[in-house]
Write a structure and sequence with these properties.
There is one protein chain. The protein is of the alpha/beta class and 262 residues long. It is built from 9 helices and 12 strands. Strands 6-7-8-3-9-10 form a 6-stranded mixed beta sheet, with helices on both faces. It has a 4-stranded antiparallel beta sheet with strand order 2-1-4-5, with helices on one face. Strands 11-12 form a two-stranded antiparallel ribbon. A hairpin with a 2-residue loop joins strand 1 (5-14) and strand 2 (17-27). The protein is globular. The model has no long low-confidence stretch (mean pLDDT 91).
């Protein structure tokens, strides 16, 4: 079976300035995959390439074995959902209206949302603790609640591939944990390939099975999160001293100790 998503020797530059080079990996259906690295290392550019928002200048991307360039916009909308790091809404749609828009790729243009579509939206809003906000204008919500509304929209789409750029921005600690748990469960239960970019490498270490660590637009490490976030790699990529520890349940925790001054 073809991987849900595969990148082969990706390269990209902005106005002649190097952004990414020689990036290759593949992600299976049902996998929760993390991407991390310092500011400016190419994480967001990589997600835009994977989503098809921009085309690679080198290499190729395959989704379910098909080149991204050959996938029609309608099929891509049903196959893949992408949540950018920042989103805004110019109109006062309610949280429920925003969430149910995730069902649009499965509708013909002349059809309205069905009761089933609204039931799906309500279910996700409840899972994200947003039932109290369902009928409120999204622009009247806190920044953290708005972020969760857009996560709800992406989950409602029920894509085969879900790409999220900093999904826990503006969320408090409890909501960050709940969101990563929900995404991990969503990947496992729905068979969705979930790819998350996050600066919180502690969350990535605990919840993602595998990950890619970028430095300067190139892969620095790729593999199991516990191995990829080894102290030597964090020293080389982030310039920090760190330790990894396992808890009584086998979960991995990352302790950042100090800047590396070597």
């Amino acid at each position: 079976m073809a991987p849900a998503l595969k990148a082969e020797n990706l390269g990209y530059s902005y106005n002649g300035g190097f952004a990414l080079a020689d990036v290759s990996f593949e992600i299976s259906a049902g996998e929760f995959f993390g991407i991390a690295g310092p500011n400016g290392c190419g994480k967001t550019t990589l997600l835009k390439l994977l989503s098809g928002d921009i085309a690679p200048q080198a290499g190729k991307i395959l989704a379910d074995g098909t080149g991204m360039a050959a996938i029609s916009p309608r099929r891509k909308a049903a196959l893949l959902a992408f949540l950018p790091a920042e989103m805004s809404v110019p109109y006062d749609f309610t949280a429920r209206e925003i969430a149910v828009m995730g069902r649009s790729p499965g509708l013909d243009w002349w059809k309205n949302y069905s009761d089933e579509d609204y039931d799906a939206a309500n279910e996700i809003l409840i899972l994200l603790g947003l039932e109290h906000a369902a009928d409120k204008p999204v622009n009247a919500l806190s920044s953290g609640e708005r972020r969760k509304v857009f996560i709800a929209q992406a989950l409602c789409q029920r894509p085969r591939i879900l790409l999220l750029d900093e999904p826990t921005t503006h969320l408090d600690i409890r909501c960050q944990l709940q969101t990563f748990e929900l995404l991990k469960d969503f990947a496992a239960s729905r068979g969705t390939a979930v790819v998350v970019v996050s600066h919180d490498i502690g969350l990535v270490a605990r919840y993602c099975g595998r990950m890619l660590l970028l430095k300067g637009g190139r892969p620095a490490a790729l593999g199991a999160a516990r191995e990829t976030l080894a102290p030597a790699n964090l020293r080389a990529v982030y310039g920090v001293e760190a330790e990894t520890r396992a808890d009584s349940e086998g979960g991995m925790h990352l302790l950042i100790k100090s800047p590396y001054n070597g």
